[in-house]
Write a structure and sequence with these properties.
The structure holds two protein chains of two kinds.
Chain A lengths: L1 H17 L2 H5 L2 H10 L8 H18 L6 H5 L2 H6 L5 H30 L5 H29 L2 H17 L12 H8 L2 H14 L4 H25 L2
Helix pairs in contact in A: 1-7, 4-7, 4-8, 4-11, 7-8, 7-12, 8-11, 8-12, 11-12
Chain B lengths: L1 E12 L2 E13 L4 E5 L6 H8 L7 E6 L2 E2 L4 H7 E4 L11 H11 L4 H14 L15 H13 L5 E5 L7 H16 L3 E6 L2 H7 L2 E6 L2 E6 L1 H7 L3 E6 L3 H5 L6 E3 L2 E6 L2 H14 L6 E5 L3 H9 L4 H6 L1
Parallel strand pairs in B: 3-8, 3-9, 6-7, 7-8
Antiparallel strand pairs in B: 1-2, 1-4, 4-5, 9-10, 11-13, 11-14, 12-13
The chains are: A mainly alpha, B alpha/beta.
């Protein structure tokens, strides 16, 4: 299974390596947040805002991953791969691996860009922060592929995404502290696992409690990979 | 190579269950080229998808390439090649990469994979296209790439689903030659088609499927012989008179048509007899039965219209 996952990873990675411009385009959105939204938070805001921005990248960067699967389902690519003995789990995890690697590279570039604005972090903090981002990427990526495989149609997948991602992002406190709002909104955010991951990401860069965040991300990874693997097995028994 | 018993598939739909395949028995011996002929929606692809592990049967069992379809699908996958109806290569991948990964997904090492890829590039006239992306290939080239991908692990059994759909006549012909070559090399080929000429050219033996059931089986010639003789069409002003001399003769203006066994040999004597009774003839045509006639006699419906449209 490891060999298969590695092979699937290499196969989907090759076109990206041959055309790395895609990675740069993926940086446009977080750079805009960094340049046009970050300064609104004032000089001390960077330490608070950048970790949240990384979590947001994990959300937006991998939630759309499922789109890359749909053309392969519609043409005969997935079918052709399914008639090989390649592990079904590898078909999922190899793809998730590609998305997570791209996410980590992009996150690193954003951290470097943020230091130009005044963000400061140690190498260890950055490594831990990127590790948490990668785990979140695994969870959301696996979920995204599974949902894409279930709904099969681009326009359905697109509406599922916009209906879920925006509320999840708004209730995670990446843009403004949830504690600024009324009680009900704060408690609503506490039900959102991403809010805890965002808190943990901030704690990693600024010292603070990380337990809830780590538990949340562990649960998300378990749920995402379990659901993803199950869907890949079912839809391609 | 294939032994299927009572293989069936029922789909649940909003308007109730649909039986796409209603229990088929299929036997294919080693080295055979077997065509699975039927109109669109007859259950060809569903049967093929079951035999290739892509779709679980709702009833029945099958032994494919020596492995049980239900209990050992992985064993089946290791020993068969499958070329689906739609193209199996990603448009953004390079030709040689897709081939090499396909070989490695079948468990080959890097070195062996490259060697096999090189052989298949030559064989399927894809040399020089290794570094091109799949999107830049013509339809015929993509199809040859699909077949090459199905052969990297040197399977003894190859499934082809509608291999020549959407190809121009020249590419079709070329593809057919490649498939025949596989047969000559001893590979067992099981292919679906709704083209009569394709079934006729490529198959040693045909299974005719209609409405989820196999309605006929035999070599193209055997099946044609089951149609009651050759069609003879005579042009004559005395069509009605001629019609009285043959069973089931049809008159259409100054044309009379009827079927007789071995028309090519029977015709000279028949024409002499007609001359003796004073019948004047303008034209004579003899048609060997086509697979369309076969399909018509077996199912009461014609394949031809669909084949022409597609």
């Amino acid at each position: 299974m490891l060999r298969d996952t590695w092979l699937v990873f290499c196969r989907v990675m090759l076109p990206v390596l041959r055309n790395p411009v895609v990675v740069v385009f993926g940086l446009a959105q977080p750079l805009l947040y960094l340049g046009l939204f970050g300064p609104l938070l004032g000089a001390g805001g960077w330490q608070w805002f950048v970790p949240g921005l990384l979590a947001q990248m994990a959300l937006f960067g991998t939630a759309y991953a499922g789109f890359s699967l749909l053309p392969e389902v519609r043409t005969g690519v997935m079918e052709r791969l399914r008639v090989t003995p390649v592990s079904r789990v590898a078909l999922l995890l190899g793809r998730v691996g590609k998305d997570v690697v791209l996410l980590v590279v992009q996150s690193l570039l954003i951290v470097l860009a943020a230091t130009l604005f005044g963000f400061r972090a140690s190498v260890g903090e950055v490594l831990l922060g990127l590790g948490l981002v990668a785990l979140l990427g695994v969870a959301i990526g696996a979920l995204s592929y599974a949902v894409a495989l279930k709904v099969k149609l681009e326009y359905v997948f697109a509406s599922v995404l916009s209906a879920t991602i925006v509320p999840v992002m708004l209730l995670s406190g990446v843009l403004l502290p949830m504690s600024n709002g009324p009680q009900w909104l704060y408690w609503l955010s506490r039900v959102n696992p991403l809010a805890h991951v965002v808190d943990a990401e901030r704690s990693l860069f600024n010292t603070g409690p990380v337990l809830f965040g780590l538990l949340s991300v562990a649960l998300l990874v378990l749920a995402g990979v379990f659901y993803g693997v199950r869907t890949f097995h079912r839809e391609s028994s | 190579m294939i032994k299927a018993r009572g293989l069936a598939r029922r789909f649940a739909t909003k308007t109730g269950p649909v039986d796409a395949v209603r229990g088929v028995d299929i036997d294919v011996a080693e080295g055979e080229l077997v065509g699975f002929l039927g109109p669109n929606g007859a259950g060809k692809s569903t049967t093929l998808r079951m035999l290739t592990t892509l779709l679980a049967p709702t009833a029945g069992e099958a032994l494919v390439a020596g492995h049980d379809l239900l209990t050992d699908p992985a064993g089946v996958r290791r020993n068969i090649g499958y070329v689906g109806q739609k193209t199996g290569a990603s448009l953004d991948q390079r030709v040689a990469d897709e081939l090499e990964f396909q070989a490695r997904f079948h468990g080959l090492g890097k070195h062996d994979a490259r060697r096999r890829v090189a052989g298949l590039l030559d064989r399927f006239e894809l040399r020089g296209m290794e570094k091109r992306t799949v999107a830049t290939l013509s339809g015929g080239q993509q199809r040859r790439l699909d077949i090459a991908m199905g052969l990297l692990h040197e399977p003894r059994l190859l499934f082809l689903d509608e291999p020549s759909t959407a190809l121009d006549p020249q590419s079709r012909r070329n593809l057919w030659e490649h498939v025949r070559q596989l047969g000559d090399d001893g590979v067992t080929v099981f292919l679906t088609t709704h083209y009569l000429d394709e079934a006729d050219f490529l198959s040693d033996r045909l299974l005719v499927i209609d409405n989820g059931t196999i309605v006929g089986e035999g070599s193209p010639d055997e099946l044609k012989n089951r149609v009651n003789g050759d069609l003879v069409v005579l042009g004559t002003p005395q069509a009605a008179l001629v019609a009285t001399r043959f069973a089931d003769a049809a008159v259409d203006g100054e044309k009379v048509s009827f079927r007789i066994p071995n028309g090519d040999r029977a015709l000279p004597g028949l024409l002499r007899d007609l001359g003796d009774i004073g019948v004047e003839l303008h034209s004579v045509q003899v048609h060997r039965p086509t697979l369309d006639d076969v399909f018509l006699t077996m199912t009461g419906r014609s394949l031809r219209e669909e084949a022409n449209v597609a």
